[in-house]
Fold each of these.
Amino acid sequence: MTVAEFKKLMTGLYAGNETVRGLYGLQPGQTFEDAFSSVSIESILFSNVATGMFVMQELFDRFKIDVSAILSAQLSGTVNWYAYRAMLFQYGMALIPETDSYDNTGLTGEQIAAMRAVKYAAAVESKDKSILYVKVATDAGNGTRQPLSSAQLTAFKQYLNDIRYAGVRIVVINDPADEMKLQIDIYYDPLVLDETGSRLDGTSGTPVRDAVGNYLANLPFNGTYTNQGLTDALQAIDGVRIAEIKSAASRYGAYTGFTGINAREIAHAGYYSATGGNLVLNFIADEEVL
């Protein structure tokens, strides 16, 4: 239910109560909206309660999703289990002999979190080979994804070898972000943006370029990129009227060519970047013809 629906449910019951109608002198057929202004104390109170109910609903929905994901990840030997266990890897610690667990006695939560080098992980079964691909990345410290170091990767592979089920062949993908090459026409409102894409009020010099970076950075690890999703994100920017992706392509590895993206794609490395000359923005004033 939405905030408005929660409020409507409560105000309908409130205005329908005979005692309330008598106290306020409401006429037959008169609704809550007819009797109370939107800025009245009654309306504001119901709005606040409705907002609280909506937030609780969203929190419980999120909680159910998180619990389901945790339960799924803890089913030993499943694809999700490998992704879950990848993120429990602690760099610099040995497993308890003959187990797949660490002895964290005496360590604080902060110390344990600092040792967990794998901040992002996904496991993908090969469709035509008996291989489980485990994609991983760490955090550069500012929310930017990057590969594990050589030493971290060596230790992580040994960790996976120690916890894997017999017969499971694992290939670790620990690569830099797939490069994206984008050419986008931006039809802008000349009252808000200038011909370089900067805001006229001076609050941001690169709102469109920043939005592209934010969209890619906020994709779930190993999530699906879509041209439509990027278009929607750009058209949500104040001052952007139309965003038209003229071309979109990607590549992984410095020695492979760019391949066009047909509507959607999942990054080989699990994440993308579009920087420098790979992101071409053409700003076109959306002017009315007088």
Amino acid sequence: MGWSKNLIYRYRYTSRVPLKDEDSSLEVNWCEVTVINEKTGKIISQNNRITNHEITENNVEKIVKLDAANRKLRMKAITFLKITVII
């Protein structure tokens, strides 16, 4: 699984992780993507997120891609707001 040549995308995920060390704590699902340069073995980026959506082997890549797109959109909106306020 990967988005680009010469990059390795490593996914990890787990379900029903308690946010606190209490019996009544809210449980969430967690996933992480680590992007590694195949030639050098260096980590290029590492991101993780929590969600209330079920994460499985079949959807972890899609969840990570949607999160990346969402972050990009939020950053564009923040930049637009900063420019609008300055003008």
Amino acid sequence: MKIQRIEIQNFRGFDHFTCDLTDPCLIVGNKGSGKTSLMEALAIAAGSLFLGFSDIPSRNIHKEDVRRIGNEPGKVPTSQYPVEICCQGIVNGQEIDWKRTIEKENSRTTMKDAKKIQTIGQQIQKQSSAGKEILLPIVAYYSADRFWPNKLLKQVTIDKPGSRSKGYVNWLNPPANTTKLWNWLSWMEFSARDKGKPLEIFIAVKKAIADCSDNVQEVTYDFNENELLFQTRDRGMQTFWMLNDGDRNLVGMVADIAYRCVNLNPQFNAEAIEQTPGVVLIDDLELRLDSALEKNIMNKLRQIFPMIQFIGTTQSPLITEEIEPQQIVNLKSL
């Protein structure tokens, strides 16, 4: 799955805007230029796949997404309609276009022009539920509000692998998935002990986590303490919760993406991380990262997850330096 082009009208601060999207793609611009608004529109676009799922919610156009004009003193701002998000892309090997719209005030987001992607969603969920080893694309949005907590909010329990659609749970708010991720890690460690050797899929996830930061040398899981442990170059052995905010957010995001990949496509076993395609949106790529991590983040993500289209936003020149000019969408202030 890839999004190749998006066109939006009357969405937040955008009157009308169109851009082509590469793989990967970096959206740059000053504060207030519309980077987050474009990412929210892309979340609506990518999440349209879930219109065909019975148990995973899509992202609709909300009231606060409607563009308003007329902020002069004494005047009441007026909402502008229609609000449209039009896309072209490749979904399940098919080149298609789809559109989500709010046509007028107090109306709902339409699905009539998104039948193609809705039908594809229905088909892949049906085939997956029937046990067919079809390829499921990852779809996830890591907003600028993402923050992995410095402790688990719920008790960890052993969680056996279940429905492949678990890889889509909380796709709009991945940090809310932290306990599910830890439950899965507990099950992997339990299975490794029971079989007398670690599972290949578990080794692959831990390797993906270790590869995301040059400061991390090795990743292990302490089953008794329910702790993900990191052998770091600068501070020795640390738990996930002891990492600084930047490392914890990057490690948490990479661990979450890897977890989703292996749940969505278990038929690939350890190769699921490298074989899973899809669209991952990351707003504010440099969030809480130090300069060393900033400089290599897009390359690191592409190396670990080579089949995923990463679309991210940034104001950091360190990140834009590692991307080809044709892979950058430069927004002007609205």
Amino acid sequence: MWRPPTTAAGLYGASRLRFPRRRSWWLPLSTPATRARPPWFWKLSRPSRSRPACGVPARRARPVQASSFTCSPCLDWIPSSIPAPGGPALSRQRVIPVARVCVDNWYFNVNTDGELTLKPGIQGFRQRIIYRDPGTHQFTKASYPWLARVFVEVQGAGGGSAGANAANGECIARAGGAGGGFSSSHIGVATLGATETIVVGAGGIAGGTASSGGAGGSSSFGGLVVAPGGDGGSAAMSSGTTPNAVSGTPGASASSTDASGGLIAGGGPGGGAIRLSAREALAGAGGESRLGHGGYPRGTEGVGGVPRGRGAGAGGALSYGESVQGTPGGDGLVVVYLFG
């Protein structure tokens, strides 16, 4: 009676098969040139292996990806037509089985067409829209069918500063303009109107040689989020040589009567101006904002410091006998973050 091999060497490669009557022989090594072997060789030297319906060994089966959520362990083939006797050979077409999958219902839905879709509000941040140009813009909800909520940041514009025109041998220093307010809020898609009007406030205009700077414009996202602009710097100091000082400009209000939103922050005040003598003075700095920095305070003659960023106030002008203009405030800004 034949007995199966008892060693690993007897299962693979060159095999010395042992029998009870001490009969033995050697089988050749497996090489590319000698891969074809009789059926009895596989029964003697290798255990049987399960094969899928297609007949391809399991280790050689090729996965097929039909979509992100379907796959197949192998390829199945079926005739596309039944030939007549003596007709041409069967033509074959590939059939890809669809696998069953389990999905997390916290993130996914299966619609009536059997399509796997993400649940609204589960996608997270998808897009950001920045409105930079002063003026009016429109936000249309229907343009974003996947929208679940928005997060809006609104920055009011900064105030401008006054110019100065001191008499010859005298001095005038001006206060800085105030920074604009800031508001932000999360808003659900159900709260949004079909179209929301967005307003980006313009920075306050520069004052003339003897006039105050203009106030910055308010910025808003519909009536849901509003941020007021900062006031302009005043032209309070008169020409002279004796010590003098003028107060700064109060920052934009953070009260609910002037602003709306989840987070409301007022603008920074414009700095006051001081004169020590006909040749020594310091003009006021511009007020800070949430998204910008006010113009610098200057001690040399010239126009006020230019604000940086968005919504900050302009620095005050300084004159030692020359005519200088004021500086405009920083423009506002509206940023809308879209979440799916």
